[in-house]
Every structure is written in C-alpha cells, then in structure tokens.
Amino acid sequence: MSYHRDIRIEFNHCDPAGIVFYPRYFEMTNSVVENFFRDVLDYPFERIALEEGHGVPTVRLEADFTAPSRLGEMVRFTLALKRLGRSSACFAITGEHGGETRLRVMLTLAWTGTNGRARPWPEDLRRALAGHLHNEEGDR
Amino acid sequence: MSYHRDIRIEFNHCDPAGIVFYPRYFEMTNSVVENFFRDVLDYPFERIALEEGHGVPTVRLEADFTAPSRLGEMVRFTLALKRLGRSSACFAITGEHGGETRLRVMLTLAWTGTNGRARPWPEDLRRALAGHLHNEEGDR
Amino acid sequence: MSYHRDIRIEFNHCDPAGIVFYPRYFEMTNSVVENFFRDVLDYPFERIALEEGHGVPTVRLEADFTAPSRLGEMVRFTLALKRLGRSSACFAITGEHGGETRLRVMLTLAWTGTNGRARPWPEDLRRALAGHLHNEEGDR
Amino acid sequence: MSYHRDIRIEFNHCDPAGIVFYPRYFEMTNSVVENFFRDVLDYPFERIALEEGHGVPTVRLEADFTAPSRLGEMVRFTLALKRLGRSSACFAITGEHGGETRLRVMLTLAWTGTNGRARPWPEDLRRALAGHLHNEEGDR
User: Fold this and answer.
1) Which of chain D's residues have a Cβ under 8 Å away from the Cβ of A17?
2) What predicted TM-score, i.e. pTM, was given to this entire model?
3) Which SS3 state, helix, strand or coil, does residue B84 take?
4) Which one, of B19, B76, B12, lies nearest residue C110 by Cα?
5) Is the CB of A12 less than 8 angstroms away from the CB of C18?
6) Whole-angstrom Cα distance, residue B79 to residue B65?
7) Residues D56/D132, Cβ–Cβ less than 8 Å
8) Which residues contact B79 (CB under 8 A, 6 or more apart)?
9) Residue B116 CA: distances (Å) to CA of A64, B54, B119, C18, C60
10) Partner residue opposite A55 with nearest CB, options D17, D55, D66
11) Which residue among A52, B1, D71, D78 is buried most deeply as judged by most CB within 10 Å?
C-alpha cells in the first residue's frame, strides 16, 4: 500500500555534470508528499495553506544519494508513512530507476497551527494518515 | 495540431502571495518545449545535450502574465510552432485555467553546435519541426 | 544613477551545458528589483508582501539572451527605471561580464492591492520611484 | 576558524506561508560549500566541474529545521569541516538569525573522478581541507 509517483528528470533538474542537482530532489520529494496528501488523503495543500492557514513544514530529514540520476530518466518515487505522532509524521521516500536506488529520504513533517507552532493533527486527517501507516513488521 | 501539457501548480512554484512566482513559469515553459521535443519530435534533450553535445538555448522571449495562477490549479499549456528559421524556431506558448489565460509567451530557440554557436537544424529535426508549423492563416 | 548588483554564477544556476539556465536569470532579475526596492527605495518586499498584503507582480517582460554566462563568472546587473505609470513601472535590466552583454530584459511591474488588482502607487513610493526615472534623452 | 556567509532571504526562497521552502535551503547550503571551496580552498567549482571534469556530489545529509526563516531576514551560515576521509568530507552547516538557530545540516561530499566514481582527494586539495578540520575537542 505504498504510494508511487514517476517523475521525469528534466533539464531544469540537472547540473553541469548532467545529473540531478540535489536540492531539486527535495522539490521532487516535496511534490511526492504534496500529491500523496492530494490523491490519497484527499487533503490538498491549498486547503491546508490557503484556506485554513495551517502548514505541514518539514522539520527533519535524512537523505542518502546512492547513485546519480540523469537527464531524461524516469525516476519512480515510493512513499510510505513510517510513524505517526500526535502532531508529526515520518515518511520514507525512495527514488529508483532501472532497479537501482537513487536516493533514500526519511522525512519528518509537523502539522502547524495558524501561529506556525506544532499542533495535533485534525482528527479526520489523522484517521486518513493512520490508514496508510506501514508497521515495522511489514507493509499492510 | 497544437501540443498540450497540463501542469499542476505545486507548493514549490508559489510565492508568499500564494501565486506562481514568474521564474517558475519559465521552468514550466521549458518543460513544455522539452516534452514537445521528446513526445512529438522524438528528439529528447538528453540526445541533444548529452549524446551530441548540441544545445537549444532560448535566445529571446516575450511574456505577458495576464492573470495569476494559484496553488493547486491545473494549468493547461499549449505550444504551437510559429516560425522556423535556418537555425531558430519560434514557439507560442499559452497557459490557461478555467477558460482564463494566465500567460502568453513567445519564445525563440536556436540550435547550437558543440561550440555553442548557432548552426542550421539537422535535416531530420528540421523536417519534424516543419511538420508542426502553424501558418499565419490558420493552424494546419 | 543606475543601480548595480553583482551576482556570481553558481552551480545551482547552471544547466547540463554548464551555462545559466534561463529561468534562473529571472530569479536574478527579480532579486535585482527586490534589492533596488530595499536598498534604494527603502521599501522592502517583506513590507509590501507580509506587512501590507500588497504585491508588485511582473506583468510583462521581454528578454534577449545575447551570450551565455558560465559557472563562476561574476555578472554585473544594471537596473534603470524607464517609465513610471499610475500603477506600473517599467525597468530595463542588463547583465554583463567582461564587457560582453549577456542579457537585456525589459520588465513591467504593477502595484497591486490586497485583492490582487492593480492600484495606484502609494504616494511616498511613487515619489521615491520618480526620483530614479531615467528619461529618454539620457540618464539624469 | 569557521567559514561564514550571510544570505538574505529573498522572494524566490519563500513559500505561500512566507517562510523559506526547505529545498531552497539546500541551494543555500550548496552555495556556502561552493564559496568555501572558492574563497578558502582556492579551488572553485568551475575548475572542478568544467576544467577537470571532476565532481563533489553530496552523498548524504541530515538536516534539522528548528525555526522558520522569513522574507527579508539575513541568515548567517556557518560551515565547519568535521571529518576528512580518503575521498569524502563531512561538513556541519548551521544557519541562524538574531541568535536563533534556523537549521543545522550535516552534509557529506565525495570527490569523484571523470567517470563519476569516488576517488581520493587530489593531494593539494586534501592539504587545504586538512588545514580547516575542526577536531572533536574544539576548533583549532
């Protein structure tokens, strides 16, 4: 029950070495999270940011870039929710192409109120998230 | 025979006013051109830039931003080839949402050799481009 | 009485050809305008966007990219106010390095109210802008 | 003997919440590393990437975003070299404003040969790096 999203490596992602410039990878991981909220949780970012004045800032991340991605490649991103806290959520995101892992990211988001401080998840959003939790023993 | 491409306005495109920051629009127009070369002309940028060492730099553009685009909107980009020169091509690109034009861009590319200077289009690419030329009197 | 700003071409600006990717030029021209408002007009964007809820969106631009800029080069940007309308302003921005012009941009901004629609410039800002107007006959 | 660099938070860095969008922070950390190589090690990226065909890709990072940075703020970035391996280097980078830490990043680079694979540091670059190593017990 992981969430997948394919992103083509385009000119604007690549550096003078012809490979993805790593800050662009985080535009991609943010896009994957954003589309997971839209497509799976049915809670799009425009509702969070513009209608409600809430936020889901990234508060921590770890990333390993294990192999470069090149212009023109289609990279498959896979997102899995690994932990769900009172006001936070931890996602594992990987990107791979042709059976080769390109990056592994562990990313922690917080839910924030209109004052920008962490707040407990809204009940409906927490329930939607909980339904997509991958436990330690294996994916449900 | 125009080429269309839908791009969702995501968080990374938007400024503190919640609307698209205009330099991001040019990442989008470049992506539209890039995918036109890939999907329609069958001449992807990785072939041009990495295999051949050629380029298709943008040498001139005019843009009108007629209405803002907001987070979450799906903007439909339409590309039409308007002029084909010996070593250049002029594309009209528009973006619209809900019947409202958001931007109109006229963009001139040049084909460049390995030394970065303008060169005549390769014959097969010129032929492919010519097949998509929209004449003044009306679209073919 | 032009405004100058030097910007080093860094890795994040460059494409697989090792030259500036043109959407990044517009991040630079926007930065030049932003710093002109901050340094010269004493009216920083955080005041406009965050405190007042106003905006200065770019509504039109024309750009000529006359020669590529390369990683490591310091490009000198020069901004001159060319026209001042009731709710708009037109700036000429050039970038050059080593005596060679790299880009020429003509860029029109509008002042917008809290509803996002064009509004007359605030009186103090208009006065500050008017003091930096370059007339057709020559720079004052 | 840390390296400092001040970066103004500009419009292009900020998201619809008016705070820095985290992928832009990595453009900043990359810029800090790039300028450290230029200013301190006297080994600029254009030499590495364009003249030599080598690279210094980021292979791993950890980041904590401890407080948001807002439009207009000047953020002071501090870089310290923490570990120097045969073909890698680990940098601690922090950003702070007004005495408040905004982010802490631990970032590992590798030196790569023309084939993109890790290679031992060139001797002169290794020597330059070693002179800036901060040991565990305290900064030299």
Assistant:
1) 49, 55, 57, 116
2) 0.95
3) strand
4) B19
5) no
6) 16
7) no
8) B2, B3, B4, B5, B32, B33, B36, B91, B92, B93
9) 35, 7, 9, 11, 29
10) D17
11) D71
Residue with the two structure tokens 């002169």: D124
Sequence-ordered strand ranges (E) for C26-135: 58-65, 74-84, 88-97, 100-110
Which token pair is B25?
Answer: 């629009």
Q: Which one of C11, C21, C71 has the shortest CB-CB distance to A11?
A: C21
Domain ranges of chain C: 3-130
d(CA D79, CA D94): 7
Distance CA B91, CA B107 (A): 5
- Beta partners for residue D6, in sequence order: D76
For the residues C120-131, what does the mean pLDDT come to? Answer: 96
Q: What is the mean pLDDT of chain A?
A: 94
Q: Tokens for C27, please give them.
A: 């991040």
- Hey, is B119 helix, strand or coil? coil
Dmax over CA atoms of chain A, in Å, equals 46
With a cut of 0.95, is the ipTM above it?
A: no
Q: Which fold has domain D3-130?
A: Thiol Ester Dehydrase; Chain A (3.10.129)
Q: What is the pLDDT of residues B23-57, one digit of tens each?
A: 999 999 999 999 999 999 999 999 999 899 999 99
In one-letter notation, the amino acid at residue B16 is P
Name the token pair of A74.
């289609």
Q: Which of B5, B9, B11, B20 to mutate to test the interface with A (most CBs of A within 10 A)?
A: B11
Q: What does the block give as tokens for D125?
A: 């670059």
All residue ranges of chain A with pLDDT < 70 are 1, 135-140
Query: Distance between CA D121 and CA B95 in Å, rounded?
Result: 48
Hey, is the C-beta of A72 within 8 angstroms of any chain C C-beta? no
Structure tokens at D1: 């003997």
Residue C102 Cα distances to A12, A16, B49, C34, C63, angstroms: 20, 19, 21, 20, 11
- Residue closest to B41 by CA, chosen among B125, B139, B134: B125
